[in-house]
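ingest -> fold -> write
write: protein_1
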Amino acid sequence: MTEKQGHYLAFIHTYSYMFGQPPAEADIQRHFRVSPPSVHQMIVTLERSGFIRRQPGVPRSIEILLPPENAHPRMARYQNVKITLMNH
């Protein structure tokens, strides 16, 4: 797991815990201030690496497959990620 993957997994975990549902790719895009294709590529990479799974065509279906306590240390280090809510 790369440091960047750890950041994304920590965000997905924290967002899911705080809001009771996984983030949409648009939520991830706003948080990391990256382009939609960048977010999508990272989601695909995380899925291919076996860190998450999604249901095709179902919004907000990201599921982390690693329990936080069994995750790579880089994910644990970023567990206290700050989520900023923006009004649009």
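write: protein_2
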Amino acid sequence: MVWQISILMLMALVSPLQTAAGAQSKEDTNMDRVRVRYMVNELDPAVKFYTTYLGFQLERESKRNFAMLERGHLELVLSTPFGPGGAAKPMSDGRKAAPGGWNRIILNVHDLPAEVARLRGASLHFRNDIVSGPGGSEILLDDPSGNPVELFQPAN
């Protein structure tokens, strides 16, 4: 299931969905985006991480609790596990949202070793070293709250 979600997110970054109708209204265009929510411990360091190092643009924010970032057709929603929003509310069984885990967004890069060197030069934390498989090479970068971001270079 994780790989299916990853593929859908990757597709959203690479090629926007098209409708048979051709021209789309603004409301329809919003349906072409993939939105992912990451829970973060603190909003400001997370926004700085994604905008400074990974090419996201700040779309809107509500200080302390919420920010929406954009990169292509991907909207990254950053929420704190506290505050007034629904993302901070506990589940019916009492569980609370928390940062971390293994689900992740995947960002394609042209030169993975160069990107890793650049980000290591900024003292960012990686979970592993570059690993390669038949589809390409990847590495997991942690955001300031411990959420993974996979940097992926497709095989030639």
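write: annotation protein_2
The first strand starts at residue 34 and ends at 39.
The CA atoms of residues 65 and 80 lie 5 Å apart.
pipeline exit 0
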